[in-house]
Amino acid sequence: MAYREFADLIKAINEGIEVVLVPKATRIIVQKLCELGWLFRKVKGYITERMDRFPAEDVGTVGQAFCAALQDELLGYYKLLAVLEAQAMNLIPLVSENSSSGNSLSLRRLSVWYSELMVKMRLMAVLVDSCKVLKGGAMAGAIHMHAQHGDPLVNDFMKRLLRRVCSPLFEVVRSWVLEGELEDIFAEFFVLSQLVKAESLWREGYRLHSSMLPSFISQSLAQHILRTGKSINFLRVCCDHRGWADASTEAAAAAGTSIRRGGLGYGETDALESLVTEAAEIIDKHLLDVMYNQYKFKEHCLAIKIYLLLG
Asked: Does the predicted TM-score (pTM) go above 0.85?
């Protein structure tokens, strides 16, 4: 016993306070169990605070998905509490009794029951602290950094969480790459749109938003995603052409993915790269065909050349 603890004990005895001596091992177990409750309140408080503010821009759809995923993970905590409450009804037999204590609940058994949940709860608390001021792709990237873990339990937990968190992000990617539409009302995507005139749409209408680029998408892949979506958007807006829809379907089929919602998700980076590559190749070919055949781009350039050289 430390000197300060001993001094506090003597003081309590002198003041007539009833003192119960608890073994150090028991105190450690109790402290760990109390930590679980503190972690739960921390995570639950974050979820409540964020969801009460939705649809604020600093929360966004990715933040909402993160809170929903955390809430689902807390269901395991509630279920375990219900089981342990039933177990707690079984009284622990006295040492003098010969009855088995197999169904009784002790602090040590409680600690064992909560060991796996403690790992998850600590991780959720770390994620909550990491994502307090983040949103969109930046939030997804920060969570992804914690997924690089050697523990299979942590790895599986993070993958399950990230599939939920990244779902809105990959839906925007799918819509942009295959339809040329950017529905990003909370500015969470790594492609940023700007209101410009039609003649400036290609050069100034869209650009990369680097701070929202998640770490699991490379800069080169992001550039391909930007350009592919711009090509379809250019066909839709500037050329008033609808043939891009068939080209998008062809690209998705060639990449082995679906054009419907949910066709892409976290952990499918290879599928995303394949889709973007196929879409870029097919859409670019289609765009050039429209420019050269429908709008006679080559003939216009030749006419300008003749005018400049011959007047």
From this structure: no
pLDDT per 10-residue tile (average), the chain, 311 residues: 58 62 76 86 93 81 94 89 77 50 71 86 94 92 88 90 93 88 90 86 89 92 92 83 70 66 78 86 85 85 86 60
The whole-angstrom separation of Cα 113 and Cα 65 is 28
Q: Which helix (H) or strand (E) holds 193?
A: strand 191-193
CB burial class (10 A; 0-12, 13-18, 19+) of residue 84? Answer: middle
Helices (H), the chain: 3-14, 24-53, 60-88, 107-113, 115-130, 136-145, 152-165, 167-179, 201-204, 219-237, 244-255, 269-289, 297-310
| Domain range annotation of the chain | 3-89+106-165, 168-310
- Fill in the amino acid letter for 104: S
In terms of Cβ atoms closer than 10 Å to its own Cβ (0-12, 13-18, 19+), residue 87 is: middle
Spatial distance between the Cα atoms of 74 and 71, rounded to a whole number of angstroms: 5
